[in-house]
Amino acid sequence: MTDRSRPRLIVLRVFVLTLLVTLFGRLVALQVVGGDDYAEAASANRVRPVVQTAPRGEVLDVRGTPLVRNRTALVVSVDRSALLRQPDDGAAVLERLATVVGTPAAELTRSITPCGDDVAPPCWRGSPYQPVPVAEYDAGDAAGLQRVLRIEERREEFPGVRADFTTVRDYPKGTLAAHLLGYLGPISPEETSQPDYDGVTATALVGRAGVEATYDGDLRGRDGVTEVLVDRFGAVAGEQGSTPPVPGDTLVLSIDAAVQGIAEKALAGAIDRARDLRARGSGARLVADSGSVVVMEARTGRVVAMASYPSYDPSVFVGGASPAEYARLVDEEQGAPLVFRAIQGAYAPASTFKVVSTIGAVESGDYPLLGRYPCPGVYGPTGQRNFDSAALGTVDLRQALVKSCDTVFYKFAYEAWQRDGGNDPVQEPRDPMVRMAQAFGLGSRTGVDLPSERRGTIADRAYKQSLWEQTRDNRCKGAVNPELSAERRRANEEYCEDGNRFRGGDATNFSIGQGDTLVTPLQLATVYAAIANGGKVLEPHVARALVSASGQVREIAPEVRTTVPTSPEVLAYVREALAGVTQPGGTAAGAFAGSPVEVAGKTGTGEVAGKQDTSWFASFAPADAPELVVVGMVSQGGTGGTVAAPMVREVYDGIYGPGGLPGGRLPAALPRALTAARPAPAAVTP
């Protein structure tokens, strides 16, 4: 070896040694330091989860009558991994299946293809190793059963296709309480990442309305998972372990199915009868386009019945409502049947609001409870007329409510407005009627355990300011628009300058539940419940309890939100006055002649710009010891005494009359069968 080659050999040896050290270090990193992680990753590459859907909990009425349950259906599913092992990737199988189930092969192909960046819906959002449902038949469907038999008899022609029994939602009472119960719909991709849907698969159905939505987390239970082993070709080679599904809780409602049926029948009948009547003033036939009835326990806030018209069949959502079906359910021209009028419809309460105004006026300290007040046909300062311009002379507050005298309340409101400074208000106006309305919870959601409840509107000073800020620019433009009449331009100019001002007419309209003040039927029910129960503003509930599969009961207790700032003496006086409304001389006397129970209540006829009157009757019974509150409303249904009051009377007849509830009372305890011990869910399999 020459002296010149020796350095080269040394460099080569160092280079080789460096390579060996680097290789050894990498091997240590892979096998020792990160061995566990890589082993776990390799295992994950061959383990795939297959979800076993948990049975959804049933929904029962307060007596244990099923309102929503699960029924058995035959579901035809396709195992995509099995199809891909066919020479043509399963194309021939899908062609044969298409002729059996009546779905085009191209549509079947799209439905079983996993969704991805380059695959848009319709596609399969679940695991690619999970069978994809492509057809569903009721267990009693003879034609569907024949289709399934064709598949089962020729198993060799349908590799990867299977038919299994599964559960789907069933409504044994048909359309009864449809809005309250709600329906299911597919979970969205965005929702799968939300905490409320933790562990819910991308193919799950979740509650979309009613109690199905509010108590979705309790009803859906917990899905089971089977971990299947797959080879490098994607074929299933076995199972590694499984976790069984945990059934959802049973939801027991405070709703009584019998009373719900009575309320719905009374509402539908009242609307039919109203359409044969003539509107006040115009003489046109009443439109009577929608309505609601709410029945609630006066002392607990538990809802006994909640009817809404028009209604819909919740079974249309089983398997998914078509776009055309859904469009019909939300179409205003067809009555928008999907709208839950009891909590989503807001209407001027009209004279039913006078109980709030009475208490507000008395508690202001300016109008004695036992005082007497003039009831002229026209209130001079504003020129507003009494209903039908009737003059009743001098009356006490009882007569003001029994006869529904508007001008008495105009006086209270206008004078209170003047004391607050009139058009130049003081720094902190008292607004006693507004404050009392807020104390009763109006203008706020009741907190009922149902989604999408409206707040309603209190047309106070803040509301006027907000409305003015939103509309001022357009009205200011209208003030200089040459295409408008001089009168319209002048009105727009005045509004542009000071449309936020709370005027005397705003105060007087508010006192009789007119103007922009709006309430839902449920909100009004909570007001009358507070008057009936001694001043407690309750949070209404439709759920009574949740019962787990193991028999554990979680009751939903009544909740008092606040107490009305008034005395027992004032509430007792108002209750006695309301009892006079249904007696001879009262505005609802004709509707309640011969009633099986003494009812206290108030009629209301809400005037609506561009529409016919809204018919109201708000009440509680028995008058001397209130148990139930019943509020009825028919939109464009005429006067309260001619449509709503007879409708509410029909509800009371069904409850207290022959064949009704014993004593008009609901069960104090849950159905015994629900609280009995049940087998515990199966243990988790390792």
Write up what this structure looks like:
The chain is an alpha+beta fold and 686 residues long. The chain has 2 domains: 49-253, Penicillin-binding protein 2a (Domain 2) (Alpha-Beta Complex); 257-313 and 328-403 and 439-449 and 519-662, 3-Layer(aba) Sandwich (Beta-lactamase), CATH 3.40.710. 36% of the residues lie in helices and 19% in strands. Helix 10 (257-274) runs antiparallel to helix 22 and helix 17 crosses helix 18 (486-498). The radius of gyration is 34 Å and the shape is elongated. 40% of the residues are buried. Mean pLDDT is 88; it is low at 677-686.
Query: Whole-number radius of gyration?
Result: 34 Å
Beta-strand share of residues: 15-25%
Q: Give the overall silhouette.
A: elongated
Measured as a percent range, the helix fraction is 25-40%
- Poorly predicted segments: 677-686
Query: Quick check: average pLDDT?
Result: 88
Major sheet description: 7 strands, mixed
State the CATH topology of the largest domain. Answer: Beta-lactamase
Q: Class of the largest domain in CATH?
A: Alpha Beta
CATH superfamily annotation of the largest domain? DD-peptidase/beta-lactamase superfamily
The number of helices is 23
Structural class: alpha+beta
Number of strands: 23
Assembly state of the chains shown = single chain
Number of domains: 2
